[in-house]
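Lab notebook page, bench 4
Experiment: in silico fold of construct C2
Operator: M.H.
Input chain length: 111 residues
Purpose: comparison with the prior construct
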Amino acid sequence: MNILSIGGSDPSSGAGIQSDIIAAQTLGVNCFSVITAITAQNSKKFSYAESVSSKAVEKQLDSILSDFDIKAITVGMVYDSKIIKTLHSRLKNVKIPIILDPVIRSTTRGI
């Protein structure tokens, strides 16, 4: 089974895309990813986040959805309103279950 995780990249793998990939692999599921933001964080501190461009998100989405049979999509950290609009535009007509898991605040009380 293939799933797609859309969200931020956490270099410590405690959250975000990396955490989703680890969880999916544990269950024997292939997890593809679309990165929406790059973060600087660890288990103690969330110190920085920067959005990738909406064009980069669009191109990542197109490359995955055009090649792989995705059975479910999760959407986590979306750090920019342009990316929200891009995701809505690209995903509104897909016939794939979408799970919204918005990030309100990091567990370390960062940004």
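Observations: The helical segments are 16-26, 54-65, 81-91. The longest strand covers residues 30-41.
Next step: discuss at group meeting.
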